[in-house]
Design goal:
The chain has ten helices and twelve strands. With 317 residues, the chain is an alpha+beta fold. It has three domains: 1-51; 59-117 and 163-314, Uridine Diphospho-n-acetylenolpyruvylglucosamine Reductase, domain 3; 122-160, no CATH class. Flavin-adenine dinucleotide binds next to β2, α2, α6 and β8.
Length: 317
């Protein structure tokens, strides 16, 4: 049977949501497409309908709104470095964005797509024939009629998925108390970014299928001092094995956020007066890293210790 494929281009966010409602269970929003299209190529994403939101001007622009800097979800990663407000108040976001993939990819990839990009695992981000050969896994969306995987291959049997959050901008944003604006139907809500991640690798986000992330809000005038590190095999074109972001504000509030070591962001909050060893211990304990990455679980956990110590040294706390 041939499945009809459709490519829809809405002219407003409202229309995009209407199109989504009409294609429930069989559509995917497309922003920069650098994540969606690779997943489609690998057969991990097979929605017959694509809703291309990349032209929606409502989702673009960086503006000051009361005590926040509002970053439209479609802002392109490579272009963040040209924004003066980001350069002055949130340079860590630019630093994080510039570690994503490679320049060509960053010229298409959006910040909204980055915080929502699919979780990854060495045993899942493989070709269809590879996944079939190992009997699939919990996260594999099986082609109709095939026997499926009911265990996590990385852990050799656990009945839970540990595919990792790999967004590099998410930890930087979370450490600086970013909130995201979500539009779903007629309802708009603004929530801390970390709250959209579930911790379940199969369904890593708690957003409804039709929800659109419209913007990201960063709090102004907090005078953040920050430290950012990313562990990867090559300096270019490599997903993270551990991304660490630390921010302290003018009142001494401290926030650590990690990606690459858990299906969600690992978040530890405290103050500059807290004992550093205890904060590091909490961060290591918070990540449920398993051996599903180029680097071993043991090494990545040790690197949390290394990166956080380096961060505290840089921040002189
Ligand atoms: C070779 C390669 C290397 C990469 N390296 C990295 C890396 O180092 N670090 C990293 O973080 N990522 C990396 N990526 C993943 C990806 O390119 C980035 O995460 C990118 O920022 C995704 O943005 P996008 O606009 O292309 O998202 P898309 O592919 O368009 O979308 C990603 C997901 O978000 C959804 N989505 C997008 N925008 C919205 C919105 N506004 N509202 C609701 N849903 C939305 C889509 O439906 C999809 O599920 C890499 C990808 C490749 C192919």
């Amino acid at each position: 049977m041939t499945i009809e494929k459709t490519y829809l281009i809405p002219t407003s966010v409202t229309e995009a949501i209407e199109m989504a409602k009409a294609n429930l269970g069989s559509f995917k929003y497309l922003a920069g497409g650098t994540d969606v299209m690779v997943n489609r190529y690998q057969g991990n994403e097979e929605s017959p309908c694509l809703i291309d939101i990349s032209k929606l001007s409502e989702l673009k622009g960086i503006t000051k709104e009361e005590e926040f800097l509002r970053i439209g979800a479609l802002e392109i990663l490579e272009e963040l470095k040209f924004n003066q407000d980001l350069k002055t108040e949130f340079p860590m976001l630019i630093e994080a964005a510039l570690t994503v993939g490679a320049p060509l990819l960053r010229k298409t990839a959006t910040i909204g797509g980055n915080v929502l990009c699919e979780n990854r695992c060495l045993f899942y981000n493989q070709s269809e024939w590879w996944r079939e050969a190992v009997g699939y896994c919990l996260k594999c969306d099986l082609p109709a009629g095939k026997a499926g995987g009911d265990i996590c291959i990385a852990t050799q049997g656990k009945n839970a998925c540990f595919s990792e959050l790999v967004s590099d901008t998410a930890p930087a944003l979370i450490a600086m108390d970013a909130e995201v604006e979500i539009l779903d139907g007629d309802e708009t809500k603004q929530v801390p970014l970390e709250d959209i991640y579930t911790g379940d690798g199969v369904t890593p986000r708690n957003l409804s299928e039709t929800a659109i992330l419209t913007a990201i809000f960063l709090p102004l005038n907090r005078e953040f001092k920050t430290a950012f590190h990313k562990l990867r095999e090559r300096e270019s074109l490599e997903f993270t094995s551990l991304t660490s972001a630390v921010a302290i504000d003018k009142n001494g509030k401290l926030k650590i956020a990690l990606s690459g070591v858990d299906p969600k962001a690992v978040v530890v909050e405290g103050t500059v007066k807290d004992e550093k060893a205890a904060l590091i211990k909490k961060a290591i304990k918070g990540g449920r890293a398993v051996d599903n990455d180029m680097y071993s679980r043991k090494y990545r956990r040790e690197m949390i210790n290394v990166y956080l110590n380096r961060s505290f040294k840089k921040l002189k706390i």
